[in-house]
């Protein structure tokens, strides 16, 4: 581990945490101050927008009063135009509208006449610049308004609205002609309305004077094609699109931009208004210059950092000077300790002063004196104990050599035993029928064969005689080597019964097998006698008569036909294992078979295997259900399914017994 000093530890454990805490507090303070300034700017802009809103509300009230005074007069003028001049609209497109305006004593600077056809096109007007203008191009709202007036056929007075070209308030009235082919529109300026607009403009201009940080405050009208009330300049396309979004979303938004080293804040406020049938609402844009504000923020941050560094240097210098009074005595003590650690127990620490280090040095010297005495005694005892250990070591080595000799002997014996068992396995497999021989007898078959140990107490047997074909599953007493020996005895006596004695019926073959096994093991019905034997299920298939003969000792044969299970039970009479029950003999059973039938013989190892989630036996009932389930599959897939089900069931349990299942398809 890398060494350190008291000074470093004080820096790491005290100064650094304090410095980090102060730095974090400074950042939090800077962030909080900045947020407060931003919120203050937002609040100021909100108050300004509220002030503008109040002015616009005042405008709404004033304009409402003005509207009430003008509407009756304008309606009378519209009726005169319809009744006195345009009862017939045949020449309306070429009529001298300026002359008619003079006859009606309407001032040319304040009043304009427009003739609009059903397509929204101005076909005649006193304001020649608008001749041919299509009102439908002003937007969907304006188009809908014109069509609604044509449909209703009534006088329509629109409220004052801002004219985009002149930025003046202008009022429009609409009167359809009697034949419904044209609309006569009156456009009216008002000096009173102009004064109201000027008040709004002056209010906006005064804001930049009252607040130095405000660069401009503008009011935008018309959601379809926004324009500024105070400036005649064309809007940037991106800016116009952004303002359109504010009209559409009816929301407020804040955008910060940096233009020519200036930090500008663009704040937009949407205000809803019902003053006009065409322009519902307006957007206020307040542009603030936050350059000085941000500069002040960073200046305060820089000042804080400089003060922070100066204070940090002063603290570190002070700590360094103070720690020297502590570290010098400790350094001398460490030097003495290192000498003592190298084995020089006669070394003593220097005692100087009257403080905690002095007391530590005194106690350290006492400890070294005691340690020196203990070291002397220990060295003596170690020498004595070493002599004893050397003697014990020689005795232990002798015992070790003897144990290793016996271990090697046991290993050699175990190797001979395993070699013998493996040779027995080869012998056992050698007597079992080959796959080629079995296929000659039964072209479609499978065998699930999994010994518990190297050699098996369960074996299968196939043979033929006089056109009849035999197959059997034999479950001998025990498993491993004893079971394998019993199985070889059973296999040999089965071959003898068929090949030498020429016995054809399964019952006769079992009786001969029982006699042979009993004689081989010299079994007697008395206590202490050898009772080795086997359970067996033996089937004989005669393809000429399509008959199956069966005899069994405990083990059954199962036939599955069209998902129906037929069981041929074995007799409760074992092979060998001498018992009085053997005197009852075996039962000859015969049954008709059909092409496609599946015949199964097996040992009890599969059904008795423990496993599943709760560690119980698989059971014969579940095994029968499984045989019905797989019976319709090809024989290779039946084997795979049975093996997979067995291993899935067994999981982490040990295999209990040898496993043997033989399936033959007729």
List keywords for this structure.
about 675 residues, alpha+beta, Beta-Lactamase, Phosphatase 2c, domain 1, 2 domains, 6-stranded antiparallel sheet, 12 helices, 24 strands
Topology of this structure?
Layout: H1 6-85, H2 97-103, E1 111-117, E2 122-125, H3 140-152, E3 156-157, E4 161-162, E5 169-176, E6 182-189, H4 191-210, E7 214-221, E8 227-228, H5 237-249, E9 253-259, E10 262-271, E11 282-289, H6 291-341, H7 356-431, H8 435-441, E12 445-450, E13 458-465, E14 468-476, H9 480-500, H10 506-520, E15 533-542, E16 547-553, E17 557-561, E18 564-568, E19 575-576, E20 589-592, E21 598-602, E22 610-611, E23 616-617, H11 620-630, H12 635-650, E24 659-665
Antiparallel strand pairs: 1-2, 1-6, 3-5, 4-5, 5-6, 7-8, 7-11, 9-10, 10-11, 12-24, 13-14, 14-15, 15-16, 15-19, 16-20, 17-18, 17-21, 21-24, 22-23
Note down, in words, how this protein is organized.
The protein has 666 residues and is of the alpha+beta class. The chain folds into 2 domains: 1-344, Beta-Lactamase (2-Layer Sandwich), CATH 3.30.450; 432-665, Phosphatase 2c, domain 1 (4-Layer Sandwich). Helix content is 50%, strand content 21%. The chain contains 12 helices and 24 strands. It has helices spanning 6-85, 97-103, 140-152, 191-210, 237-249, 291-341, 356-431, 435-441, 480-500, 506-520, 620-630, 635-650; strands spanning 111-117, 122-125, 156-157, 161-162, 169-176, 182-189, 214-221, 227-228, 253-259, 262-271, 282-289, 445-450, 458-465, 468-476, 533-542, 547-553, 557-561, 564-568, 575-576, 589-592, 598-602, 610-611, 616-617, 659-665. The strands form 5 sheets. Strands 1, 2, 3, 4, 5 and 6 form a 6-stranded antiparallel sheet that branches. Strands 13, 14, 15, 16, 19 and 20 form a 6-stranded antiparallel sheet that branches. A hairpin with a 4-residue loop joins β22 (610-611) and β23. α1 packs antiparallel against α4. The longest helix has 80 residues, at 6-85. It is flat and about 150 Å long. The model has no long low-confidence stretch (mean pLDDT 82).
